[in-house]
Amino acid sequence: MKRLVVSILSILVCSIVLAQGKLEIFSWWAGDEGPALEALINRYTELYPNVQVDNATVTGGSGVNARAVLKTRMLGGDPPDSFQVHAGQELIGTWVVADRMEDLTFLYQEEGWLDKYPQGLIDLISTDKGIWSVPVNIHRSNVMWYNPAKLTEWGISAPETWAEFLTICPSLQAKGVTPLVMGENWTQQHLWESVALGVLGPDDYKALWTGELAFKDPKVEAVWNRFGEILKCSNDDAAGLSWQQATDRIVSGEAAFNIMGDWAAGYMTTTLGLTPAEGFGWAPSPDTGGVFMMLSDSFGLPIGIKDRDNTINWLKLLGSVEGQDLFNPLKGSIAPHFDSDLSKYNAYLQAAAQDWKTNTVVGSMVHGAAAKEAFMSQFATVLEIYLSTGSAQAASNAAQAIANQVNLGK
After folding, report:
1. Is residue 410 part of a domain?
2. CA 312 to chain centre
3. In total, how many domains does the chain have?
4. Coil/strand/helix, residue 380
5. Which of 317, 336, 357 corresponds to the end of one domain?
6. E-assigned strands of 19-123?
7. From the CB of residue 119, how many other CB atoms can be counted at a distance below 10 Å?
8. What is the CATH number of the domain that holds 322?
9. Using alpha carbons only, what angle is made at residue 263 by residues 262 and 266, rounded to the nearest 5 degrees?
10. Which residues of 366-405 are buried (b: 16+ CB within 10 A; e: fewer)?
11. How far apart are the C-alpha atoms of 92 and 73, rounded to whole Å?
């Protein structure tokens, strides 16, 4: 037995020593999200010191710019060794169907991950032909953020429904407070999907992305009408704000609430130095209590890369308990791994992890889990149609036309 253990250790040591060449990690994690990625890269370079790591980050909120660069490279036959992508249809509906990715089932079997990730997540990243990426985190999209001290000062509490929010709105505006702060276009889409979840409920929300519920259905027109009511309680300068700047207005007390994913918690704790439940508070976005709208950042293995073994080692780190527990406390997300050590996570993340285990789970449209990228990338046009016309019918018709064009749900 001792000889066997020594032999295994010798093999592992040799594989680490012999690993050389390069590893390009392509992502949009920069600025406030950069430290989490750096923690992973630092650990990788400790494990594989002879590998030259290229942190190829392309900045831009929610990966808008990075996806454009990635498309050029993938179509040009110059794929990164591994690239960040939202788990689900963003990868499968684009690069898997184009036969540009390797099946990772072998890695899940070797590492024992099939029993360590929730089955629903594995289903999301799989087709009948394989498993296509390694998730490193779980984010929640449907979160309402606020400043507890300011809510006490204003004599209000976080609304559980949009109807309650709309009742609070006039009193906040009378105080010179923005009831709901928004940022640039993609953050407005982010708000829309939470409103859609609240109005439709989880079953009808899911049915939108499978094609079982038409966008022209009166239920969906009701989403746009509710969204329009909420916009009247928001800031006029949204287009000029990043999501971080919108979050800053919550902290300063200029605004009462913001709907944003829980990377906002990472920003407020890591960058602003705030303590969860003291410096900032949270609740499910109105009308979505008991539902966890998820997205996940993941990495895959492109076909034809030169340093394939280095990429596989990177994927192994991402899928390990060690890697996920290095990354997620800094990122403001939770680990998809069942074996994660929650003592390393702050109060918000511990609460999110509990909800992840107990809530109904649905995927985010805006962040690539629920709908094809071909639909998601054109949804900004639908939003602009609504903002310019104020017509729920016009927006629903436009969304239906795009859904038909891209064969949404098929």
Report:
1. no
2. 23
3. 2
4. helix
5. 357
6. 21-27, 51-57, 82-86
7. 10
8. 3.40.190.10
9. 105
10. bbbbbbbbbbbbbbeebbebbeeeeebebbbebbbebbee
11. 17
Same domain as 346, residue 239: no
Answer yes or no: are the C-beta atoms of 305 and 311 closer than 8 Å: yes
The amino acid present at 81, given as its one-letter code, is D
Q: What is the pLDDT along the chain (410 residues), one digit of tens a residue?
A: 555 444 445 555 555 557 899 999 999 998 878 889 999 999 999 999 999 999 999 987 668 889 899 999 999 999 999 999 999 989 998 999 999 999 999 999 999 999 888 887 888 899 999 999 999 999 999 999 999 999 999 999 999 999 999 999 999 999 999 999 999 999 999 999 999 999 999 999 999 998 999 999 999 999 999 999 999 999 999 999 999 999 999 999 999 999 999 989 988 988 899 999 999 999 999 999 999 999 999 999 999 999 999 999 999 999 999 999 999 988 889 999 888 999 999 999 999 999 988 898 899 999 989 998 889 989 999 999 999 999 999 999 999 999 999 999 87
Nearest to 145 by CA among 182, 170, 174, 172: 182
pTM of the model: 0.85
User: Are 119 and 241 contained in the same domain?
Assistant: no
Query: SS3 for 182-220, per residue?
Result: CCCHHHHHHHHHHHHHHHHHHHHHHHHHHCCCCCCCHHH
Clarify whether residues 12 and 134 are in a common domain: yes
Classified as helix, coil or strand, 45 is helix
Q: Where are the alpha helices (DSSP H) in 135-289?
A: 148-154, 162-174, 185-210, 218-231, 243-252, 263-266
User: Are 74 and 151 contained in the same domain?
Assistant: no
399 shares a domain with 263? yes
Whole domain around residue 388: which residue ranges? 140-294+364-405
Residues 115 and 153 in one domain: no
- What is the token pair recorded at 34? 């950069």
CA dihedral (63, 297, 294, 118) in degrees, to 10, reads: 170
Is 251 within a domain?
yes
CB contact burial 67-78 (16+ within 10 A = b; e otherwise):
bebbeeebeeee
* Alpha-carbon gap, residue 80 to 84, rounded angstroms: 10
Q: How far apart are CA 395 and CA 386, in angstroms?
A: 5
